[in-house]
Amino acid sequence: MDDVIAAHALLRLLDLTSLNEDDTEYKIEDLCQKAHTPYGNVAAVCVYPRFVPLAKRLLHGSDIKVATVVNFPKGEYNLNKLKKEIYQALDAGANEIDAVFPYQEFLNKHYTECEKFAQSARELCEGKTLKFILETGEIKNALKISNATKICIDAGADFIKTSTGKTPVSATPEAANAILETIAADSRNVGFKASGGIRTVEDAKKYLLLAINIMGYKWITPGNMRIGASSLLNDLILTIQRGY
């Protein structure tokens, strides 16, 4: 697959993201404008909960989803906090919820708590797209990543996402492979999202080709695969415009 074909495919899979402490309404307005490109729309914009109403208003009438984050970025085990944040996000109009899995509890082998967290998030997000962020750069081990993926799949996840982008190690092909192989082995249709440190077509193409190899070309749709990034869009458009 050449870079131009990959860029066209990746653009429609993109969760265009801004999750910075210095985000402002102006920055989110700019983000939402960029979500509409001459080559098609991105899949979603992902913003902090306080910006969801603004993004909803700016994207009204388009097919672009509004995603937000909960339990972000630390991945604490606090069911009351989780409930409050999800209700606030849904009340604000979010279409998709990216929830950080309690990976420290998981690493401490508190699996029952992790299962309860995942199940609670699924119940609270009924009818909405739910993505669990595993923070694979902290879990590290492929078998452990697979086991965490399985907990989330069993709870009813719509997507498994690699990372918050807030830790020293974010998405890696090795982590993506562990997640995708676990998804492929399950009978349920669960999506995959790579996120964190993906800035170029070359970066993103690794995940696209990996997913095609494991899941098949027909599986590659916005309903099954996403790439979470902020600066990637510029490189996708530049690649398409220059034609190579």
- Written as H for each helix and E for each strand, in order along the chain, the element string is HEHEEEHEHEHHEHHEHEHEH
Portion of residues in beta strands equals: 15-25%
The chain-level structural class is: alpha/beta
Query: What distance lies between the first and last C-alpha atoms, to the nearest angstrom?
Result: 11 Å
Q: Total number of helical segments? A: 11
Spatial order of the strands in the main sheet? 1-4-5-6-7-8-9-10
Mean pLDDT: 98
Shape: globular
Q: How would a textbook summarize the main sheet?
A: 8 strands, parallel, barrel
Number of strands: 10
Evaluate the radius of gyration: 17 Å
Provide the helix percentage. 40-55%
What are the low-pLDDT stretches, counting only 5+ consecutive residues below 50?
none
Task: Explain what you see.
The protein is an alpha/beta fold and 244 residues long. 48% of the residues lie in helices and 17% in strands. It has 11 helices and 10 strands. It has helices at residues 3-11, 25-34, 52-59, 79-92, 103-107, 111-124, 136-139, 142-155, 173-184, 201-215, 232-242; strands spanning 14-18, 36-37, 40-41, 44-47, 65-70, 96-100, 129-133, 159-161, 191-195, 225-229. The protein is globular, with a radius of gyration of 17 Å.
In short:
By secondary structure, the chain is of the alpha/beta class. The protein contains eleven helices and ten strands. It has helices at residues 3-11, 25-34, 52-59, 79-92, 103-107, 111-124, 136-139, 142-155, 173-184, 201-215, 232-242, and strands at residues 14-18, 36-37, 40-41, 44-47, 65-70, 96-100, 129-133, 159-161, 191-195, 225-229.
